[in-house]
Amino acid sequence: QLNANYEATYIAEEQISGGTKTWHIQLSPKTAADFKLADLWIDVDGTVRQSKITQKNNDTTTILITSIKKNPTIKGDTFKLAFPKNVEKVRG
């Protein structure tokens, strides 16, 4: 599906902020899309570490992902909902 919808171009091996080595890949939509370009910086594990979206008017949004924790243990209490006393729980 990626190949059908985007032209992928390898730009270079680059270091992003924090020193992580990545492969810089640029995606260009093959058909009409909400953006002009998407740049991705992918680490050796295949994780996207940074992305930059270029809009049709050349505005850009860059996101740098840091402090990644892969497969951390999550306690069940994290998902426990606390309802106020005046709220009725309805099971569906």
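(the above was protein one; protein two follows)
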Amino acid sequence: MTSIPRGVRDFPPEEMRKRNYVLDKIAQIYRSYGYRQLETPAFEFLDVLTAKRAGGETINKEIFKFEDLG
């Protein structure tokens, strides 16, 4: 059995269908008010995240750090 990293999860197809339906409805409403979609990277350099300091010390508890093996 394959394990996934802590803090993430898989969504089976039926659950994804329901989630996408709800998210599409929300997006339709947002677009009707002029919402423009923005997508940001899922990963960022650690120095960029820690320099922001907008969330104070709380943000440090929410950062997952990966070792550079390259």
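Reviewer note on protein two: The radius of gyration is 17 Å.
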